[in-house]
Each structure stands twice: as C-alpha cells, then as structure tokens.
C-alpha cells in the first residue's frame, strides 16, 4: 500500500504540493490527473525518491521511499521523457537496470519481440514512440511492486497503446503490483484505472473508485413546457448547466435515484440519463472548482 | 561504497578505461622510443603526469554529469543505492581512473630502469606517493567544484575558476605590494601552495628531473590532503544533500556563480586600482571589467539585466580600491616603504641599468669621451649598453661599508620618492631604466625582499664607489664586450 502523508514540495518560493494526503491500495491502478502544471510529475518524483519532500512522508509497504533506499528496488519510474545517454543501445541500458533491479530476462526478451525493438540499435535513432516503448519494456521486464508511469501513452500509436495495455493487464494479474499512471489521455486511463485522483492546487481533494465516482455524477437531458433558469435547479448539486432552446443539459452530483425522482417532480416532457465518461468527470470537477479559464 | 554501483561503473565505463589504457600506453611507448638514456624515463614520467593530471579534471565531470540532467536524475536517483554510497563509489572510481594508470606508468618506468640500467629506481617510486596524493586531492576537489553548479557547462566553468583562483589572488596581492607598499616584496609562495594543480606540475617535474633531491614534499602533501578533505566535504554537501530539482536550473548556489563573479570582479578592480589609480586607462579597464561582469552575469542568469545593486557593487569596489590606493600613496605605503633597515646585518644586492648616450643620464659616455678623445671612432660606435653588479655583504656594519650602503639607500629613497611623489602612474614611464633588487636580513633577523626601479640610474661616481666592493660591469651592445668599470675608467679620470 502506498500512503502519502502531508507531503509538501516547493520549487524555490513556489509551493507545488501542499499537505498532500493520498492512499493507494495494493493492486490498484490509480489514474493521476490534473491540469498542466498541477504537479503530477513532481508528485511521482516524490514517490520514487527523486525529490526530497520539504515535509511529510511517502510510505510504501511501511518504508519511506526517500530515506529507505532498499524499498526503491520495488519502485520503477517511467518519466515523461526518458534518459538515454549518447550512443546508448537497449542492451547498454539493460546493463544499468539489471544492476539495480531484478530484471526478468524472459520477460525482457518477450517484450523486446512484442514491441519489435532491436537490442543493438542506437536509441538516438529511435522515434519518440520507440523511446517510450524502450522505457516501458524495462518497466514490464522488471515487474516492480510499484510502477509509476508519467504520460506513458504519449507518442504511442494506437496499436502499441493496445499492446501496452494488454501487457499491463498481464502484469496486474499479480495482485501485489500497484500502478500509478499520470496522463492527459483520460480515455486510455478509463480503460485501465480502477481508482483516480485529481491533483489541483497542490492537493488531491477528489479521489476514489472510478466507477463509483462516475455513478455519483449523472448527466441529464431535459425539456420542459415552461421556461427554466439555472436558479430553478439550485436545490441540486449542479456541476454543469447548459440551455439550448427548450432543451437543458445538466450534470448533477449526488444519488442518481433521488436526483431523478426530484427532476421528475418538475414534470419534464423529456428526461434522459446519459453516461458520464472519465474525461467529462474530470472536466466537470475542474470546472466546478473554477480551475479552468472561462 | 556500493558494489552494485561500482560494477555498473566498471561495465558502463569500459570504453573509457580501454581508451585511457591505450593513451597511457602510447605515451609510454612514444617516450621510450623518442628519447635516449635517462631522458626517456623522465619523458615517460612527465607524459604520465600530464595525462593523469588532466584526467583529474575530466573524470569527476564525466561521472557526476548525471546530476545536471533532468532526465538522467529521473533514472539514476530512484535506484536502490544510498546517495552517500553513490558519492563514495563515484569518487573512488574517478580516483582510480587517474591514479591507477599513473602508478602503472611509474612501475613500468621503474622496471625499465632496472632492465636498462640494472639499478632499482627507488627515487621514482618515492615520488609516486606525493603525486598519488595530489591526484586524489585534485580529483576530489574538481568533483566538488563541478558539483557546485547545476549544468555541465557551469560545472566546468566553476571547476576552472576555482583552479585559477590562487593565481588571481597572487596577481592582486602582488600588485598591491608592488604598487601600494613600494619596495616591499613579501614572499607570496603561499599562493603557489594554494594551487595544487600548479604544485603538482612544478614539483612533479622537479622531482622527475632532480630525483627528489632538495625538494620538500611536506607542503605539497599537506596541500593534497587539505584539497581532499575540503573537496570531500563540498562534494558531500552538493551531492548527498543535493536537491535534484537543481538540475538544469541556473547555478545560483552561493559558492557557484555568485561567489565566483564577485571574487573575480573584486580582484580585477583592485588590481587595476592598485596598478593605475584613477586615470583614462583605468577607466577603460574598469569599463572592460564591467563588460566582463555583465557577460559573466549573462552566462550565469541567461539574461542580460543590469541591476542597480550590480552597479552599486561595482562603483563601491572602485571607490574602495581607489581610496585604498590613494591612502597608500599619501602615506608612502602606509609608512612601510621608507622604514627599511638602513644597515641590515646581511644584504644581497643585484643592480642593472640601461645606458643611452642620447638620454638624460650620460655621465659614463662623457667620461669615455674624455678618455678616448672626442674624435675617436669608438665614441660614435657606442650608443647603448647595460651596467650591472651583484654583491652580497655578510655584515654591513663593518668599517668601510657605510659609503656603499649610503649609495644603495640613496637609490632606494630616490626610487620610493619617484614612485609616490610622481603621478599615480609611474609604470607608464617608459624611460625608467634602472632596477635594484635586495634581499636583506634585518637587525631583528627578519628576511625582507625589495625591488626598486628608478628613472635616474646610479651615477658614475656611485658606481665607482660600489666597484670598490664588487666588480661593476658595463657592456655596450655594439660589440657585446663586457668591461669592469674601474678597469675601463680609472679612478683618476676627470668626471
């Protein structure tokens, strides 16, 4: 289990993470989302021990990830822009990883074939997507207890994305592996994440089970004979309101059945419940906090 | 120490190790084949010393460069190795890269000595210890200064700036004594000891040539140990306690650009102020230093911005240096210049003067003309020459030396007066032609070195007085023959 307690991280005078608290259960796939510059990469770097927290702790399996170097053997971080020294090849990078991690040679060979990568080709000549595949190859071959992926779908073509998601599912058969994925591609996250957290203003205030959270928000399409204004719906926990002629689109947070019952009492001539995607959930949450520019 | 990390370094640096082995082997092979006799052994050791000293400036930056790369930081710092162990392992590896080839080279050279001369080279092996310590000190210290910065370029700048710092201190201190406390030349060899790189080169080569004879290794070894201790402390602070977010940001650590730019600017301003006071040339030089200061700040902050505090710092330093220089001139070197011992118990004097028959002081040419006759063709041949003498007196208080000391002291007083009472730019008087250096043991048993220069040379009468105690030679450039002045111009000549 990963537990983050009152984590604070500053860059000079800029406070990036402030008293951040988060618990990620063992075996879960956690989607970390947030607007640009929210501090997602900083949080991942704090978790894997690259950045020293100003205060607070990151505890993984009862050990502090910054101060206890032994636990870092179980953590693997794939950054958004991998480091490949000049003239390096996959086999020379392997030399580094097999020194510090328990690299599974069979898995390494398997994913080398799956991603169709040449072991001795110079990485300098690789495309952005191939470099990303190289990083993911080692992540999958090492099978860490905690895998941190920063923008891991960036630059991957749809086929490779699918291959990687399948590989991740295989990896997650081992119930003790926890994955944290930060991405702006929420459609991809929705396919594989079971929990999520929205990072804003240096804290994670919205987090939990993805399905439950999606169920807690309902999008309605309504039409009335008479004219209604936003204020008429003030009794609901309204996250979004749109009016186009006689048709209203409302996003309401709260118990679905109770909300539907209350809306029916307003005698609409049309009432449709629409599913909410993770992307919409994120947008409505962020909009409701006023984090996006009008 | 981390065995894992060491293994990784061995694997990842195998090409560097092979390259270094080849370079050292080529150095030895070329030295052994291109020189003869003992020279080939000396050349081999000299070559090894240069290669491996250069390595102390390369190995640290190469092995520590990952701290200055954001992407590399994400790769290297999540690994399961304590930072302290990582630091110790990298330092050990860097030291081994510089020291092992050197030890191997010296051992091979000693072995060749045995083969060629059937004599075991204890001296070569003895010189291995201080050089090894110096190479360790330089590797650790250079790694430390490299780690002060947040990018590879800034790290190299910091490393070179700290290497050169003793020389800039030497320049400013030397200029201060030369100009502000005129005539007093204290021993500034402390600055040579401060530079381990300079010491290693000079003492290393002296050791190779003289085979340890008369060379004191102690200051060198102490310097090497101090460099190692200070370097390790600095490297520890800047690696183990390093915030990884520093990578690729501006190098604003106190001891990085902020200290370097301030120290170098201050030293240059002081040097210019001491050397030239306030004149047109000094204003040009101050302006050039300000340009250099602005460029240095641009390199530091990656933007050109002249801040009020920079201008105030500059103006303040110039004002301070100028006031100090003026006070020194007004007080005749804070009262030190004229306070020399007029009768030191022991003195060595070295005098040299350029003479010129067209110049203001041509009494020697007049005397020669008197002797040879004005129609002598020799008179038209001699135009320029040089006069010099060197004497050492064990006890100037003995009878007979008073007159000679009076001549010497008169020259000193005249030189000091010319320096302080003239303008503030005596250095730019190109006709200044006489130099006198003195090393004296004062009545209080203190050693004092002094250097004087004077527009007005010693007169012929003065030289004839000196010639009673030691030979004074004159040499004309026309025939390059040297004569003792009293032989050429007998004392009864009418001058």
Task: Kindly state the percentage of residues in helix of chain B.
Answer: 55-70%
Please estimate the helix content of chain A.
Answer: 25-40%
Number of helices of chain B: 18
What radius of gyration of chain B results from the CA coordinates? 29 Å
What this model shows, in words?
The complex is a heterodimer of chains A (294) and B (495). Helices cover 31% and strands 30% of the residues of chain A. Chain A is an alpha/beta fold. Chain A has two domains: 2-212, Rossmann fold; 216-288, Alpha-Beta Plaits, CATH 3.30.70. The relative contact order of chain A is 0.14. With 495 residues, chain B is α+β, with helices and mostly antiparallel strands. Chain B folds into three domains: 3-158 and 188-247, no CATH class; 258-330; 346-488, no CATH class. Chain B has 18 helices and six strands. Chain B has helices at residues 3-12, 14-34, 37-64, 70-76, 83-117, 122-147, 152-180, 189-194, 196-210, 218-239, 257-276, 280-301, 308-330, 363-372, 377-381, 402-421, 460-467, 485-488; strands spanning 346-356, 384-393, 434-441, 447-454, 473-476, 482-484. In chain B, helix 2 (14-34) packs parallel to helix 5, helix 3 (37-64) packs antiparallel against helix 5 (83-117) and helix 7 (152-180) runs parallel beside helix 11. The chains are: A alpha/beta (294), B alpha+beta (495). Chains A and B meet through strand 6 and helix 2 of A and helix 1 and helix 4 of B.
């Amino acid at each position: 289990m990963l537990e983050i307690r009152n984590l604070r991280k500053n860059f000079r005078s800029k406070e990036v993470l402030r008293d951040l608290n988060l618990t990620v259960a063992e075996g879960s796939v956690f989607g970390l989302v947030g607007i640009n510059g929210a501090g997602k990469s900083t949080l991942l770097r704090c978790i894997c021990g690259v950045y020293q927290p100003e205060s607070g702790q990151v505890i993984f399996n009862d050990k502090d990830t910054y101060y206890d170097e032994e636990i870092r053997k179980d953590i693997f971080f794939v950054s958004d822009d991998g480091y490949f020294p000049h003239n390096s090849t996959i086999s020379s990078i392997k030399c580094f990883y097999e020194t510090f991690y328990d690299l599974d040679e069979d898995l390494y060979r398997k994913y080398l074939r799956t991603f169709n990568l040449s072991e001795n080709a110079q990485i300098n000549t690789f495309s952005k997507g191939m470099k990303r595949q190289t990083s993911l190859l080692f992540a999958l071959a090492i099978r860490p207890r905690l895998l941190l992926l920063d923008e891991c779908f960036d630059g991957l073509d749809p086929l490779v994305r699918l291959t990687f998601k399948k590989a991740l599912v295989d990896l997650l058969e081992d119930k003790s592996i926890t994955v944290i994925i930060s991405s702006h591609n929420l459609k991809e996250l929705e396919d594989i994440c079971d929990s999520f957290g929205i990072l804003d203003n240096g804290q994670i205030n919205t987090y939990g089970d993805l399905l439950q959270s999606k169920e807690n928000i309902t999008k309605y399409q309504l039409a009335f004979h008479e004219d209604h204004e936003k204020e008429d719906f003030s009794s609901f926990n309204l996250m979004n309101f749109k009016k186009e002629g006689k048709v209203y689109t409302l996003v309401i947070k709260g118990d679905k059945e109770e909300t539907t019952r209350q809306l029916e009492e307003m005698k609409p001539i049309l009432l449709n419940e629409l599913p909410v995607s993770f992307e919409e959930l994120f947008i409505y949450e962020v909009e409701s906090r006023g984090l996006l520019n009008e | 120490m981390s065995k894992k990390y060491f293994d990784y370094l061995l694997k990842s640096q195998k090409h560097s190790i092979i390259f270094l082995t080849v370079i050292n082997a080529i150095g030895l092979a070329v030295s052994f084949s291109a020189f003869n006799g003992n020279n080939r052994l000396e050349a081999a050791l000299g070559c090894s010393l240069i290669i491996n000293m250069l390595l102390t400036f390369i190995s640290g930056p190469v092995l520590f460069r990952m701290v200055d790369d954001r992407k590399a930081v994400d790769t290297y710092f999540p690994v399961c190795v304590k930072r302290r162990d990582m630091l110790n392992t990298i330092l050990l590896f860097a030291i081994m890269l510089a020291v092992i080839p050197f030890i191997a080279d010296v051992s091979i050279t000693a072995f060749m000595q045995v083969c060629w001369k059937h004599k075991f080279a204890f001296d070569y092996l003895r010189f291995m210890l201080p050089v090894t310590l110096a190479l360790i000190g330089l590797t650790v210290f250079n790694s430390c200064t490299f780690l002060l910065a947040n990018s590879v370029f800034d790290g190299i700048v910091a490393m070179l700036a700290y290497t050169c710092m003793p020389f800039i201190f030497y320049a400013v201190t030397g200029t201060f004594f030369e100009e502000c406390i005129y005539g007093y030349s204290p021993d500034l060899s402390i600055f040579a000891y401060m530079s381990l790189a300079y010491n290693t080169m000079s003492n290393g080569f002296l050791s190779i040539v003289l085979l340890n004879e008369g060379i004191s290794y102690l200051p060198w070894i102490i310097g090497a140990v101090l460099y190692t201790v200070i370097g390790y402390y600095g490297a520890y602070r800047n690696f183990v306690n390093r915030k990884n977010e520093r990578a690729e940001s501006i190098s604003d650590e106190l001891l990085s650009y902020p200290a370097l730019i301030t120290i170098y600017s201050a030293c240059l301003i002081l040097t210019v102020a001491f050397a030239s006071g306030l004149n047109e040339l000094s204003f040009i030089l101050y302006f050039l230093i300000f340009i250099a200061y602005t460029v240095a700040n641009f390199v530091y902050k990656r933007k050109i911005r002249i801040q009020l505090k920079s201008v105030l710092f500059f103006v303040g330093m110039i004002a301070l240096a100028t006031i100090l220089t003026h006070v020194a001139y007004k007080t005749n070197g804070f009262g030190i210049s004229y306070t020399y011992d007029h009768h030191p118990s022991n003195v060595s004097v070295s005098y040299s003067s350029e003479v010129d028959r067209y110049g203001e002081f041509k009494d020697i040419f007049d005397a020669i003309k008197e002797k040879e006759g004005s129609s002598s063709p020799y008179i038209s041949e001699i135009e320029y020459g040089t006069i010099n003498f060197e004497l050492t007196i064990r006890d100037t208080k003995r009878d007979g030396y008073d007159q000679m000391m009076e001549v010497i002291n008169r020259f000193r007083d005249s030189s000091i007066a010319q320096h302080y009472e003239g303008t503030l730019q005596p250095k730019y008087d190109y006709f200044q032609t006489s130099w006198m250096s003195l090393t004296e043991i004062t009545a209080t048993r203190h050693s004092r070195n002094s250097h004087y220069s004077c527009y007005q040379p010693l007169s012929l009468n003065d030289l004839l007085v000196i010639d009673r105690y030691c030979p004074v030679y004159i040499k004309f450039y026309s025939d390059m023959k040297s004569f003792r002045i009293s032989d050429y111009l007998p004392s009864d000549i009418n001058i």
